[in-house]
Amino acid sequence: NAKLNIIISPWPSSIKNYDKKNLFEKNFINFCKQNCFKLINLFPFFINEAEKSNYDEVSKKYFFMEFNDQHFNKNGHEIMAELISKEIKIN
Predict the structure, then answer these.
(1) By C-alpha distance, which of 17, 18, 42, 14 is closest to 29?
(2) Of 23, 30, 31, 73, which sits with the fewest C-beta atoms within 10 Å of its C-beta?
């Protein structure tokens, strides 16, 4: 009877090659309509950031780009914490 919460965020390659019809995002949205208490979708934040500047800037700012790595760097962890905190406070 636990309330399921899921957070999804893109890898750098997902930002670079973003498709609004991507199955990863779509499948989680559909799954959570019936099975989740809350879905926190962070794709829009990162996609908007890339549209304001460009993919390379977002990748450098939030990911370990020098290692071609999908893991968040310090800035990435900070923005994730901020975005998730905002979503938790809403509900």
Answers:
(1) 42
(2) 23
Q: Which residues contact 5 (CB under 8 A, 6 or more apart)?
A: 36, 37, 38, 39, 40
Enclosing H/E stretch for 6: strand 5-8
What digits encode the pLDDT tens for the residues 18-67?
Answer: 998 899 999 999 999 999 999 999 999 999 999 999 988 999 999 987 66
What is residue 67's DSSP assignment? Answer: G
For residue 15, which amino acid is it? I
- HSE-CB at 77 with a 13 A cutoff on CA atoms is 5
Rounded Cα distance, 44 and 35, in Å = 22
CB 40 within 8 A of CB 6: yes
Specify the pTM. 0.86
